[in-house]
Amino acid sequence: ERRSVLTITEPPRFHSQAKGKNVRLDAHSRKATRRNSFCNGVTFTNRPIHLYEKVRLKLVAVHHGWSGALRFGFTIHDPSQMSSDEIPKYACPDLVTRPGYWAKALPERFAVRDNILAFWVDRHGRVFYSINDEEPILFHCGIKVSGPLWALIDIYGITHEVQILDSMFAETMTTARLSTARLSTCLPQSNHDSANFNNNELENNQVVAKIANLNLSRVPGLATDNHIIPCCPNRRQRAQGVPAFLDTDLRFHPTRGPDITFSQDRMVACTNWQESNRTLVFSDRPLHIGESLFVEVGHLGLPYYGALSFGITSCDPSTLRTNELPADPDFLLDRKEYWVVYRAFPVLNSGDILSFMVLPNGEVHHGVNGASRGMLMCVDTSQSLWVFFTIHGVINQLKILGTVQSSPVTVSPSGSPGGSQYDSDSDMAFSVNRSSSASESSLVTAPSSPLSPPISPVFPPPEPSSSKNGECTVCFDSEVDTVIYTCGHMCLCNTCGLKLKKQLNACCPICRRVIKDVIKIYRP
């Protein structure tokens, strides 16, 4: 029956009208390219998708430098009835917070050029996807299948161009086969996926119920006693560049998320991986200027989203209570203290060793296995700063190896030690809350989490842009046309500049000097 449907059905194409402003289609509407920026890439199919019909997408072009990848899912809303003004910048959270839209993000590790993504929905409202025709992964539950469904595709982040291939039909997922299917995590990847997660109430109950026969408690290699915490499994030899002698006076602070268990010496933090939602851990003392912290990660090797978040705060952990610690560290940005969060780490292997160091000029640099990865963020070094982490998804263990006090670092005019460029994922860092009260605070995000209008961000110099004047370093969308007084940096559009100027303690996104005024530039 499914084969007969294919013979009389035209292969799906991209809808020629219902698309984001940065989307360009080829003459046959089979290939969609996002031009400029990282967003405004929402597209739909031109016809409804049948149950079990695979929407097959080839990732034609992937451009690294952004964070996040393709978002995909389904909608019950006919794109032909949409006006261009109704199509927002982002599928997540803009569309998925509306009734009748379901979408989530493709894990970045699968966003590889020439990979073929196939996704489909079955009669039970379950969405599966596969990469290059490998085993299917359970992605979504609770899709409304009583009416027509159009595919929703957001060409987002590092995904630059996709092509719709001819349709195929998926096999029915029997109970026996479902028990061996991999599943996407019950933890959202990021804040914008969290909006989708909460809106559709997906994995909390339905996925767990539908794959109850996945006996996760019997995964080999997992300790059954959380109080017995081994060293990171399959630990490699200490990476080159890690000092042979480390001070071990820094440990995890006793204040921690309720889903964290410490080793007896508080040098190892381990999650209760089946229920690891609130996993904040802090250092038990401030990190000194010029001091390098070395930590080792361990993970389960299971196909879960999420990994490690890193942050800096002026808040003494001893003033916090366990019941105040949220699952998402972004909620801490509403507090009156100084908080900075970074979560765009690359995929880490078990046994990888990370290093973090705060330089005198406020730059926080990091390395992996002894290799420098550049700057993560800029922080205010005029106050004591504690380090904190959240341990999520595939990462289930974090071990403090020790610290070492470095000699003073010569900072070049470019802002990086020794004149090195900003070759890290620093354009994906989250910014800070510097307000004097919670009511004045705001979450400022880079492209990896487009949640709200950026205010007082801390970004390194932007990458060279192909456009004439470059993209605004705050919204990453509009053209730069404003100069900051007194530092003279020209890195903002006028809209963001005016918003930034109004904020308490507003500072330049590049050099962090106080903004006294912003001046619009008019070019001939």
UniProtKB/TrEMBL annotation:
Gene3D superfamilies: 2.60.120.920, Zinc/RING finger domain, C3HC4 (zinc finger) (3.30.40.10). One of its GO terms (molecular function) is zinc ion binding. It catalyses: S-ubiquitinyl-[E2 ubiquitin-conjugating enzyme]-L-cysteine + [acceptor protein]-L-lysine = [E2 ubiquitin-conjugating enzyme]-L-cysteine + N(6)-ubiquitinyl-[acceptor protein]-L-lysine. Residues 11-167, 249-403 form the NHR domain. InterPro entries: B30.2/SPRY_sf, Neuralized, NHR_dom, Znf_RING, Znf_RING/FYVE/PHD. Its main location: cytoplasm. One of its GO terms (biological process) is ubiquitin-dependent endocytosis. Residues 472-512 form the RING-type domain. It comes from the Eukaryota. Its EC number is 2.3.2.27. This is E3 ubiquitin-protein ligase NEURL1B. The lineage of its organism: Eukaryota, Metazoa, Chordata, Craniata, Vertebrata.
